[in-house]
Write a structure and sequence with these properties.
Length: about 150
């Protein structure tokens, strides 16, 4: 089960973030694993993911499940044992398969530290804050937007 955590952000704004302590279950396959594709927003990662899906006929994932909904309007977790993310990219068109053998699933993340027109104190992060921001996901479940940080071990 996950635990709720309150995180402060910048100018006294705060948001509730579900921090999941889910680890890969003992009886789960060790593969595939997640490979983060880190980039600035609007720098071409959606296009890169599309190219990977077409070239390999395998799925890709994203930390932005809120923008990748199935026909019922829900985000679909990549692994059923990790409901806080990452999520299948374009689940309504997910004709591709999970990669076989010792492989990775390309997963889109923008991490943190991007703030346009802000002073440095708004975007300078500690190492822990940066890692958390890379693992932060947004998703929709039963018409509610959620934010979670999933475990880096997956």
């Amino acid at each position: 089960a996950g635990q709720w955590m309150k995180e402060a952000h910048g100018d006294n704004n705060s948001k509730s973030v579900q921090r999941y302590s889910y680890k890969r279950p003992v009886n789960a396959d060790l593969w595939p694993k997640v490979a983060l594709l880190l980039s600035f927003p609007n720098s071409g990662t959606s296009y890169t993911g599309k190219l990977v899906r077409r070239a390999t006929l395998t799925i890709t994932a994203t930390n932005y499940g809120y923008n990748n909904l199935d026909e019922k309007g829900n985000s679909i977790p990549l692994f059923d044992w990790s409901p806080g993310g990452p999520f299948i990219t374009n689940p309504e068109n997910a004709r591709n398969r999970y990669p076989q053998g010792r492989s990775y699933i390309l997963t889109k993340s923008h991490c943190g530290g991007t703030c346009f027109g802000c002073p440095p104190k708004k975007y300078l992060l500690t190492e822990e804050e940066f890692i958390d921001s890379c693992l932060e996901s947004s998703y929709k479940e039963r018409f509610v937007k959620n934010i979670a940080i999933y475990d880096q071990s997956i």
